Amino acid sequence: MRRLLAILIACGLTTAVASEVEIFHWWAGDEGPALEALIDVFEAQHPDVQVQSEAVAGGAGVVAKAVLKTRMLGGQPPDTFQVHAGEELIGTWVIADRMEDLTFLFEEEGWFEVFPPDLIDLISTPEGIWSVPVNIHRSNIMWYVPANVEAWGIDVPQTWAEFLEICPAIQAEGVTPLSLGENWTVQHLWESVALAALGPDQYDRLWSGELAFNAPEAMVMWELFADVMACTNPDAAGLSWQQATDLVVDGEAAFNVMGDWAAGYMATTLELEPGTGFAWAPSPGTDGIFMVLSDSFGLPVGAANRENAIKFLRVAGSLEGSDAFNPLKGSLSPRTDSDLSIYNDYIRSAAADFAVDRQVGSMAHGTAANETFMNDFAQVIEIFLDTGSPEAAASAAHVVALQSGIGR
Amino acid sequence: MIGGPERPPDPSNAMRRFTRDHLTAVLMLLPSLVVLAVFVYGFIGQTFYFSLTDWGRDPAQALALRPERAFVGLDNYARLFTGVLETRFRQDLVNLLFFTVFFIVGTLGLGLLLAILLDRGVKGEGFFRTVFLYPFALSFIVTGTVWRWMLQPQGGVNLLPTYVGLPQGQFTWITSREQIWSFDWNLVPSITALVVAAVLLMIGWSGWRSARRGRAVTFLGVGLALAVWALSGAPGIEMLPFPERRGFNLALIGIILAAVWQMSGYTMALYLASLRGIPEELREAARVDGASGFQVYRHVVFPLLGPITLSAMIILGHISLKIFDLIWAMAGPDLATTSVPALLLYLRAFRGNQFAEGAAIAVVLLLMVATVIIPYLWSSLRGEVRR
User: Fold this and answer.
1) Same domain, B260 and B325
2) Among A62, A180, A235, which would you mutate to test the B interface (most chain B Cβ atoms within 10 Å of its Cβ)?
3) Could you report the per-residue pLDDT of A181-220, keeping only the tens digit for each?
4) Which of A176, B112, B301, B310 is 20 to 30 Å from B102 at the Cα level?
5) What is the pTM of this model?
6) B144 close to B328: Cβ distance less than 8 angstroms
7) How far apart are CA B58 and CA A152, in angstroms?
8) A268 and A177 fall within a common domain
9) Is B141 on the interface with A (CB under 8 A)?
10) How far apart are alpha carbons A217 and A232 in whole angstroms?
11) CA-closest candidate to residue B332, choices A188, A280, A241, A289
């Protein structure tokens, strides 16, 4: 009996002494191994800290975010959580004073020299820097199969004008010029088109509130969008993004605008060779511009294991952590000093662009606009799909921007 | 009073025994009552309170540790029904209405048909019964995913005619943007008033026929007045500054198909049990009186299926009013043509951080479900008490 008591007390003491850190995220399934690798690096450096990996899978993060919101509202924040860097974090959590400023961490770790200044601008406000990016994805990329493009005798379009010129010829062959999937992929296409139509400076002004969505100078993006949409497949609403990519791979569509997770899908799942099995170009009209989206980790106010969370953030932003995570995730490292030899061909070409290109934020993936806007923008797209009218979509977007406080 | 042996009460310990039993009963029920009061009714009350605030409009307060909510009264509800940006909510309501009607009719009809066929004593009835019941065991997510693949315009169901040499089906199922039976949202007060007037007139007329004249006159009078107002005064009410077409989206047909496929096993089981419960003597008696097969069904069997139909309608009605995961799996969260209020609630509140508006949609849904459930509960409880 006394021995049992001693054992129980010993167990209690050990659990009291072992410290932990809770990481909240939605990477399950294919993306799980990447985070596991990052956690392995952390555990090697901090063997006394136990990592609780809280994954809430499904809905591309919608479910995880719902759980996160209920926890934060209930005053039980996780020690750190996955969040898209930029307005998704700033417009939801920073503005409500729920996050801690991480400028001190950036200074101590020397990240100001390593992360591109454009990226740091996107993830900070005048009051501070709010998260540590662990990866970078590019949104404005167009995918195609080189063999098919050659067989059809077309050139990869550099601008949307060129694309619209070759669109009827491709349609005449019974091939869809641009494949598309469900609503969010249409938003994804829209932002590439908007960037091409407006140029990076005007595009930035959309998100700072200086350019209204239905201003006369902005109508050009809606009209171009209407023209481009006429060259897409009519059954898009029933397709997932992978199915839209499959259309290109199977030769039923010529091009597809999708973020660079498509490279991971085509290289790993479909086992195609980057460069020969599939190829890429910047989405028409956006050469030299890198539309950024970034998964990152932040530090909520009131985290139970604040010191351990900060230790994790140091590892997440470090070279070792970044190079363990990104090859498995299929994304770029946000650090300009990462070891490019461990990445595949696509990532190397993207990293070269990332180092020199002008960077703007993706709306559809949380960098440029807050969550209220993103939620209601889906309806703007539906209004366009329903009415086919650029004017209706433009005024709806304007109202949505006002109501969600874009640029406030 | 339920239970208890029949004997004259003992005057000396009667009160004490009664009180102790009573006390025990109350104590046994108390935990459940407290849990219900807090977690069901308390939170319903809190949701209703939130729907009267502006929580979520100011992002600085939406997810703050102690959000400041200002009271705005019924403004969220006014926005939902008459606000310019809330067109999705109004279409969702209309979608829900059409979905509920076709889903209930389809499920009851198909279930009845299958039950009648099985009741005639086919060989391998057990096998067929199991096969028809299997979909009911699936979750809506599984059903939604499978039917989504099957209803893709380029494959699946549209390819079936090609197997018998016919051309490929052309209907675009869930991706369809067509709408039929369009009406202007501004006519909704008028249409609602007409429907309510029709119901009142029907109640009044049945009261007149069963010779409860006084009640009948009241109902008929109110119904008539409402109908007159619906046709003359109501169209003058302006809900929106411009006409808004709402109607039956053909994309819903795919969703209805999947839902009916899933739930008709349930109604088949209910009807089969009911049919088996009808005494054979009744059918024989009808046949002896010269009724044909169909007449036996129409005059003997179907009236006896009334009560089970009513309770199945209630169950199916509240399933359909709260439908969420089937739409999410089949059409995704953002497809406006198939959206329903429950989906909008989730997205508004948890993706868009508009908690007060989400609460308002929740209260509207609650009222809709209550309209279905409460009269049923009231009439069945009243029946029990009378018995």
Assistant:
1) yes
2) A235
3) 989 999 999 999 999 999 999 999 999 999 999 999 999 9
4) B301
5) 0.85
6) yes
7) 53
8) yes
9) no
10) 25
11) A241
